[in-house]
Design goal:
The chain is of the alpha/beta class and 226 residues long. 42% of the residues lie in helices and 14% in strands. The chain is built from six helices and six strands; from the N terminus they run βαβαβαβαβααβ.
Length: 226
Amino acid sequence: MSLHDADRAALIAGGTGRIGRAIASRLLADNYSVLAAGRNDGDLRTRDGAHELVRKALAELGRLDLVVHAAGAGFVPVRLEDVTEELWDDALDVTAKGTLFLAQAAAPALRESHGCLVIVEDVASFQPWASFPPHSAAKAAQAMLTRVLARVLAPEVRVCGVAPGPVAVEPDQEERRAAETLLGRVGSPHDVADAIAYLANASYVTGSTLVVDGGRMFKTGTTRFP
């Protein structure tokens, strides 16, 4: 879809992953022009890479009404005694540092359009996942950035989060993960995309995180944290 045919323009950082592709598909259906970006478009592990990505998006799209941070790294199960500096940096760099610098780079364009930044967090932001110390810490930092950025960029820009539960599950894990939810089933990347589409249009919502987990956070008794 060309920019002339689209109503709004969106950049999806992490747009080449399973969740990112679902988000791109939904936004295209909602008449956005979309840049679904991967690491080759700009490495979010660095400030320069984040700014490069936004420059590329503006050059291709002409404006930005919506920016989605769906990129991630460092989702690796590891015992506390085996956490290395490399594993820690992998988790924190794209997730937390990348969120900050993507927001920094996109802020002028989003202020101009009175746009929205949506950050794909994780229920690990709120739950202590003993097997994923770096990932849980990175996601908690990212969730706090959602709130900090909402204050910093208000009133021109809204900043919201989406915290998925089991939505991108391997087939051999579906039964176990479904049992961890109140709804008794796993979700899909399209559930996350639907939440982002809602937040992009929710003009009186900012600083909030929408949890999309089938009730996983409230399931007791049989829940096993990763």
